[in-house]
Amino acid sequence: MSNIIDSSVAATRRSFLNAAGRLTLSASAIAILAGCDTMAKPSIAAQPMESSASQDVAILNVALGLENEAIGAYQLGAESGLLQKPVLDTAVRFQSDHKGHRDALVGTIQKLGGKPVEPKSLGEYAKALKADTLKSQTDVLELAVRLELGATNAYLGVIPAFKDAQLAKISGRLAADEAMHWTILNNALGRPLAQGALPFGA
Which fold would CATH assign to domain 2-188? Predict the structure, then answer.
């Protein structure tokens, strides 16, 4: 099971890194994502989507797909009946964080005149993540740990591709959320803290 899920996580991360390597978000997209609509171009939502906006939407949709997958994974874990109450509460909290990331991405895509990628059905996520092989709380936590680590490294990995410091900061903040999730989940599995300095983003 581990190798199959690891491959799925790696493929998602590669898609995000490849997209970011080819594209750089415009100043307007950065401003909107940062919650500074007044810094964006006037009436951008009403304008036809131009080439730069199309590129912005493409990379933001890859990130949105990553967040949708995380939301689906936590939903599967919550509905599995395998999580004890304290762990379940934490999983719901982390899912809420991912929903916040999702909402920010959806809002930015829409303001750019694009169409947010639709989330897959819970059944599709269950199939892709091999949810039928999850038999214990440990199995669910292992899956969440791999997804959070993949997301952490993906967000960190795209930072060098951004020419705008504000977008690099936003990507870093997203990575920080994922790293926090990974650390807490790793601890719930009874594992020690990551060994050595700079454990993420390699």
Answer: Ferritin (1.20.1260)
